[in-house]
Structure prediction request, 1470 residues.
Amino acid sequence: MHGNRIRSEYLALFLVWAALVLLFGMLSENFFSLRMFGALANRIPPLTVVAVGMTFVLIIGGIDLSVGSVLGLSGAVLGVALVDWQWPFPFAALLALGTGLFAGWTTGTVSVRLGMPSFIVSLGMLEIARGLAFLTTDSQTKYIGPSVEGLARPLSGLGLSPAFLIALGSVVAGQFLLTRTVFGRYLIAIGTNEAATRLAGIATLRPKIIVFALMGVLTGLGAIFHVSRLGSSDPNAGLGLELSAIAAVVIGGTSLMGGRGSVVNTFFGVLIIATLESGLAQAGASEPVKRVVTGVVIVAAVMIDAWRSRWRGGFLALFRRHFRMGKFNP
Amino acid sequence: MHGNRIRSEYLALFLVWAALVLLFGMLSENFFSLRMFGALANRIPPLTVVAVGMTFVLIIGGIDLSVGSVLGLSGAVLGVALVDWQWPFPFAALLALGTGLFAGWTTGTVSVRLGMPSFIVSLGMLEIARGLAFLTTDSQTKYIGPSVEGLARPLSGLGLSPAFLIALGSVVAGQFLLTRTVFGRYLIAIGTNEAATRLAGIATLRPKIIVFALMGVLTGLGAIFHVSRLGSSDPNAGLGLELSAIAAVVIGGTSLMGGRGSVVNTFFGVLIIATLESGLAQAGASEPVKRVVTGVVIVAAVMIDAWRSRWRGGFLALFRRHFRMGKFNP
Amino acid sequence: MEAVAPIPHLQARRIGKAYAAPVLVDFDFDLAPGEVHALVGSNGAGKSTFAHILAGLVQPDSGTVLLDGRPHAPRTLADAQARGVVLVQQELNLLPTLSVAENLFLDCLPQRFGAVQFAALHAQARVAMQRVGLGWLDVTAPAGALGVGQRQMVEIARALTRQCSVLILDEPTAALTEPEIARLFENIRQLQTGGVGVIYVSHRMDDIRRIADRVTVVRDGRRVTTRAAGTATVDQLVGEMVGHALPPRAARGSVGALGAVALEVSDLVAGDRVRGASFSVQEGEILGLAGLIGSGRTETLRAIFGADPVTGGGVRLRDSGQTRPLQRFPSPAAAVAQGLGLVPEDRTHDGLLLPLSIRVNATLATVPAQAGRLGWLERSRELVAAEQACNRLAVRRDSVEQAVSALSGGNQQKVVIARWLARDCSVLLFDEPTRGIDVSAKETIYAILRALVAEGRALVVVSSDLAELMTLCDRIAVMSAGRIAAEFTPDAWSEEAITRAAFSGYLYDSTDAR
Amino acid sequence: KPAAPESSKVPSGMAKPRIALVMKSLANEFFSTMAAGARAHHAQHAADYDLIVNGIKNETDLGEQVNLVEQMVARGVHAIVIAPADSKALVPVLKRAREAGVLVINIDNQLDPEALRQAGLEVPFVGPDNRAGARKVGDALAARLTRGDPVAILEGVPTAFNSQQRRAGFEDAMKAAGMTIVSVQSGAWEMEKASVVAGALLNAHPDLEAILCANDSMALGAAAAVQGAGRTGQVKVVGFDNIGAIRPLLQDGRIVATADQHGDQLAVFGIEAALEILAGAAPPAHQTTAVDLILP
Ligand SMILES: Nc1ncnc2c1ncn2[C@@H]1O[C@H](COP(=O)(O)OP(=O)(O)OP(=O)(O)O)[C@@H](O)[C@H]1O
Ligand SMILES: Nc1ncnc2c1ncn2[C@@H]1O[C@H](COP(=O)(O)OP(=O)(O)OP(=O)(O)O)[C@@H](O)[C@H]1O
Ligand SMILES: [Mg+2]
Ligand SMILES: [Mg+2]
Prediction:
């Protein structure tokens, strides 16, 4: 994971992304503008922070389907605190983060302590959090206005919003946490073989709960970014976010079976998804075309990344070999 | 898996279902009518057959997120064949099954032969199939009319539709396939430890592809049931079906990590989900309440089923033990 | 098979195989029909690799194999089996969710129209298990419920049901106790008379003396010698394996000054296998735990360590000069915090993080110690620690960044042991610590264990190899049916006495007879 | 009076104005009809302007629609014709678009006047009055019921403005005619979901006389449920949108009425308004388009 290896590890996905940018650049004239990259940078913070959290969840071999709903709920709470209770922004933001934390912690505790699949617990939380979001806001979008838009507004001179910078910071911090700390080492060990890790004298339950709680906090942060971009809070926010986040993480090469992953590559996954969406919109592609292209690119990105590590003896030999005896990581 | 063990295996989920029926019976007066059960029996065939297929997919340690879209696509193709091309129903139905088969086979082949996670391949297929469904129908709902409704119409005297009987047949056949045939044993073995299965001299790739293809055929069958129930084909059909199907399967105790599962219990999972939805609608619950209750019941059902097997030394001791040292099957 | 095939039956010539480093070099090997040909060598010498080549799991880079005069280059396990070459692998490969019977016959389930004929299957399975002396085993039970030793027997039984002309046994006895071994040898002799050639890989010199006709010594992937088994002494063989004569074994240190009781186990009850075990071990003492397969030794260690829930009794631990009150550890983490350590029996499932590097595996129990402030990993310190740990046990490796899954069985075992040696534990529990470890490395490990007790630590060693226990331990406790049936000091023990004690718990309670 | 922002003037030497049409879900037949209408108009006037048509994948995904608006601004379009997925949440981004010099025309779903006022923004609106349209459909139904009959309403996604408007229109009509509304539930705009909910409603209320559905997909689902319950002819169903698939059911009486908002013309009105303003005309006042009642 050092020196050249780092670079080669990130290279494949970077190239996929660059290829997409180039392609869309040729397809629609104004794609290569600073403004265009600004728009891209502005839209990804919520997905980025959620995907960072999801990377950790997948690494311990869990899954969290509730992130979309929890983002909706945290955003709803933020809106109510700001508009109905007239709280100042920092307190309201803390409350939103706390809401996310509580939801994530609950999912984690129930699944870890009761030994239930996190898939089903978080599926339950998906429904519950969405219901609560509707309850909190009475199913109404709340207009909040400029008071909350600061985070999403590009800083003059830099062209990037504070939200983007924070999201980027979370990627860097996440990668460090994963690869350079004892906690990160434990997460990888747990995801690889929980029984062996436990017998090595490492407490495995608490780290797992912490990961779900962290996922919750990051989702809360995502909600703040989302609300500040919309200038309004919307109880439907985040619908389907879980799939985009998981897709970004898996495109980034993190295994759904746990034990292996990279936060930086997750970020490339996010970039690929976001660029694809923007590029297709710019090109004005019709809905069916958008769908089909998105599907193909998602599969292709993972395929290219999967081949990166097996890149020996030429492309064709490789292809042949893998058509004969593929491995299977569902 | 024999004799009494079978019964106790199915009992927990049956009781959860019975409890739900009782509860809703008390909440809304007209719940306990024959008509109610008829309505329930009539609406579940599509979910049932899809969930049967999903059980097999999860047992081999895979996942198929594309079933909703593929159902939409197969239904769209069925509609076009019946209305625009004026094909007779049997041929159109075969075409729909073939469409499902092809989609499932493609997902399976790509994921198995190229060694890619089925999660991501089927996520790609989700987008692609939906895009094709929009293309096929030009995003229009098609009214087909009585010619197709026969499958969904209750047989006089019996009160149950042919679709329901076929779905029930698929459950029985599925359970038999899983527990009593060589193929079924291979699937369990593959899901438990694919490498070890290969070491036992079993070819593992073909059975996995067959499972995805079977999932596709069953999804096509689900599409036929769906279209025949609504009398129209709708390119948006099946939105979110993958989550319902997976939820039903997991409620039925099948492990997301593969190697363990029961088709009959999946059927109970389907019943629980369907009863919950109908019951809440009957009781006239508001949307937020529906969501929260659904979430809680999903988690509770799995919890109860998980405890079934650990039912020793009283409820409390059990609770305490599991709060101290839970297993974790994400 | 009755017809006497022209000699030799199997002929391997100039086999070469290299991964990062060469594993087999110009390796020659012959097997005559009806012969038991032992293959010995230190850990990582290339024995399993050769077995895998014959069985179609690995393809050689160079060289040829002739089987009955025809080339034998199987690409899959099934290819090899079709030619009658059957392998029992060193690492166990049963499928825990399937029944014992299904595991035995997975690739040839009796069927009619695709439906499994369960009655026939179970009958066949019972016969197969009878053959290895485990007729009482419930063949419909899931294989996951079996312990390592029983799983090993199932694997052997599985191989014995196959039509074979060459049977390869890779470390079959590492987890077996004497009764099973005797039974296995009986089976091998039967096969021999049927003309089957057996390749027998083992680190147990005793086995080789008893069963082998010829022995080939392999060192660093090269054949050193092949000779009739009777003509070499153990010391000669060992010398050839390691390339130099072993220093004379340090005599079992006379029992030194023992300290206070470091670990006292009293009336421990856990699951249905541990039914009130009581024993204690003092500082500076090695206690051996002997017993038959399934007598509950593994479960006792796990229960002490907090890995399984304890339902009765508990342990008293001496920690920094204080004896703590009777307690039950809620988790291994709690036990480790008080100075316990456990080397588990099943290294692949309970010991190693297979896809990860040797560095990560060897330092897993000591990560915080090597980390800097705030839990920051210090890579250089980790590397040093991992190198040290590997050197201490002579782990044969290309680099510590190599995945442990690429190590030979014995070297994997050494990594698990190394992990705990790096940690300052006052009481260490070893479950079959030398499983799959070669003779010279065993000596190293014995020396290390001796050094540990010399520092005043207390060790508990479970082993199915009685000779090993009798070399190593200061005292041997014998488990039978979940209790300690007897304890012996060196002056009082004998194989016969220990074996008698091991059976004692089952004599009155025939329902438990296993 | 709202004026075209200074910077959005098309330099007279410039080739063609570029117009972006941003809609809700193209998976919804109503919006795909709208898009088709716009494309047809563009095909006839290809020399006059360039058109980029976009919609979001999921009708409730406001974030994605905000992305689309920003994307179109970045792309350098001169005007955005938008059918907002939410009447409040799109205001800030539209304001940013205006600040960047892009003309904004609101169609279909009117932006919230209060939010617009707070943001200091004025946006011309071209579109139907959903509430009045639903009221018409409700009145037509009421004419076939007797006072006091129990009826139920299937609304769309409860957070959607259209859904709220149509529900309000239905309620106005039913209250005015003195019917009893026994239940209001969401069918999430979907056929399948609507058929499940309608099935449950039919079971819970054996005396139910009518189901008012906030769109035609749900009406199809409700009609299937009515048929499944064997109460065809007893329970009347109305819809909204007049999609193609509804016609056979209108013919055979299983659906009593629906409303047509002329979706195909809606975007065209917006585009024409944008072109006029870009050409220098004064922005039009709000323009309410017709909603026609459709009976068999
Ligand atoms: N897949 C692999 N990749 C790299 N090296 C490997 C691989 N498999 C085996 N090796 C190396 O080959 C060498 C020989 O291994 P092998 O398993 O044949 O040893 P062995 O003689 O069976 O040892 P043991 O007695 O410990 O079982 C070892 O050094 C091992 O590290
Ligand atoms: N019927 C059974 N149900 C559950 N577990 C069983 C059953 N039979 C055997 N076992 C398990 O199999 C283990 C057999 O252990 P194994 O074959 O590994 O020998 P071992 O580990 O040497 O024995 P020991 O327990 O003395 O260490 C038992 O300890 C027990 O855990
Ligand atoms: Mg070996
Ligand atoms: Mg043991």
Notes: The interface with chain C takes residues 2, 176, 180-183, 185-186, 188-189, 191-193, 195-202, 259-260, 321, 324-325 of chain B (CB under 8 Å).
